[in-house]
Amino acid sequence: MIALPGRLRKAHHFVRHKVNTMIQIFRRFRSHIAASLLAAYSLYHAQAMVRSSVQNFEDTAGLDAISAFDGRFSQLREQLLQYGCREVGYVTDDPEDADWFTGYSRTQYALAPRVVDDSTEQALIVANLRDQSSIVSIMRNRHLSLVMDYGNGVVLLSRQIH
Amino acid sequence: MIPKILLAFGVSFFLGFFTTSLLWPDRLRARSLILRCCLAIGFGLGISSCWFFMWLCLVGAHGANFFALILPELALTVGLGVSYFVFHEDLTQSRAHEHVREVEGKDLVSRIFSAVFYVVLACAVLSFLLISLKNPHGDYDATATWNLRARFLARGAVHWRDAFVDSQHHSRASLDYPLLSPPQSLDFGNMLAPSQFWFRLS
Q: For every residue of B80-119, which 3-state class applies, written as one string?
């Protein structure tokens, strides 16, 4: 019973010595450890970034959607340039969600510097359609008439004058 | 096409580099080449964009020759470059000593860090090139804001201000976004599609 505290003290000193040694080693090399972790983390993310970019590059599914969108509107853009039209209206058969805004902003991008106004208050209105057949109901409901159908869901409309 | 992009970027870069270097404190100049190069990119693109807006407001939108934009910028770059090399001569000696001391003093961790940095930088550049080749117009933000404004500036002639107009029915403006990125996109866009811009303004 008397020897036990002595052993405990010894054990305590031993553990304290070991812990202090480990702390000293850690303090001595902590900058190296931190540098190694940072380097490993950076390299891991760099290779992940390259791998993701290569996969995306080789994936033919998402082939430059903006250029395709630009191509759809090229004839209309030239036509509007000839008309000297500065602002056009916009209609679509897209439901008003995130896709709607993507379609609208791409149409604006394709037709710039013509201002695309999300309304039918302009003299000329551009229709960006997923389903070509929906143009009939759009024209009827919004009181618009057909000016030119450019195909691929791109239609130029005008307001009906009453 | 590539020489034109390099020219557009190079003029802005050297403009920024010479300006940054001339303003840089002499005592800090010795080991600051990479830092000055990094700052030169942003600084140069900013100066070029400011000059582009000034040119657009003064004469650009009214059919002025495009060389009226590029030649003053080029002349300023050359002027700053000559000044830089004149002052540079005085510092060559002290810089050489600093460089020797720097190479001797590099420890293993610094070398490893440098190597890792260049590997990561190479990966980032490769990744950027692949993304740019795949989507030359950029992602959503690019077409909805930056490149859209650049198109207005390039194609808009006297109506270029429409890029920054907001209204009830269209919200292109995002007026809280920085103004100086679109002119730089335009600089590159202009070089990529000269018929759309050079022809219109010259």
A: HHHHHHHHHHHHHHHHHHHHHHHHHHCCHHHHHHHHHHHH
Identify whether the C-beta of residue B93 lies closer than 8 Å to the C-beta of residue B30: no
% of chain B surpassing 70 pLDDT: 65
Please say whether the beta carbons of B162 and B156 come within 8 A: yes
* pTM confidence score: 0.72
Q: Which of B120, B127, B172 sits opposite A108 (nearest CB)?
A: B172
pLDDT tens across A104-138, in order?
A: 889 999 998 888 888 888 889 999 998 888 899 99
Using beta carbons and an 8 Å cutoff, which residues of A are at the interface with B?
31-32, 35, 39, 42-43, 46-47, 49-50, 52-54, 56-57, 62, 64, 66-67, 70, 86, 102, 105-106, 108-109, 112-113, 115-119, 121
Tokens in use for A2?
């008397």
pLDDT of residue B51: 86
Half-sphere exposure of B123 (CA within 13 A, CB side): 18
| CA dihedral for A14, A16, A17, A21, sign (positive or negative) | positive
Q: Say how many CA atoms lie within 13 Å of B64 toward its Cβ.
A: 17
Q: Are B186 and B8 within 8 A, CB to CB? A: no
Predicted confidence (pLDDT) per residue in B36-68, tens digit: 999 999 889 888 888 888 888 887 666 666 677
Residue type, B145: T
Residues B116, A115: C-beta atoms closer than 8 Å: no
* Residue A100 pLDDT greater than 90, yes or no: no
What is the predicted pLDDT for the residue at B10? 86
